[in-house]
Amino acid sequence: MNLKQLSDLLGLSQTTVSRALNGYPEVSAKTRDRVQRAAKEHHYSPNTRAKGLATGTSMAIGHVIPMAAKHEMVNPIFADFIAGAAATYSANGYDMLLSMVDDSKVAQSYRSLQSRGSVDGVIVHSPTVNDSRLTLLDEIGLPYAVHGRASGHGDPYCWLDVNNKSAFSRATTFLTDLGHRRIALINGQETLDFATRRRAGYEDGLRAAGIAVDPAIMRSDEMTEAFGYRSTVNLLAMDAPPTAILVSSMICALGVRRALEERGLKMGRDMSVLTHDDALSYLETGETIPAFTATRSSVREAGEKLAQLLIDRITSPESAPPHILLEAVLTVGRSTGPAPQSGV
Amino acid sequence: MNLKQLSDLLGLSQTTVSRALNGYPEVSAKTRDRVQRAAKEHHYSPNTRAKGLATGTSMAIGHVIPMAAKHEMVNPIFADFIAGAAATYSANGYDMLLSMVDDSKVAQSYRSLQSRGSVDGVIVHSPTVNDSRLTLLDEIGLPYAVHGRASGHGDPYCWLDVNNKSAFSRATTFLTDLGHRRIALINGQETLDFATRRRAGYEDGLRAAGIAVDPAIMRSDEMTEAFGYRSTVNLLAMDAPPTAILVSSMICALGVRRALEERGLKMGRDMSVLTHDDALSYLETGETIPAFTATRSSVREAGEKLAQLLIDRITSPESAPPHILLEAVLTVGRSTGPAPQSGV
DNA sequence: GCTAAAAACCAAAGCGCTTTGGATGCCTAA
DNA sequence: TTAGGCATCCAAAGCGCTTTGGTTTTTAGC
Question: Which chain B residue has its CA at the smallest distance from A77's CA?
Answer without folding.
Answer: B79
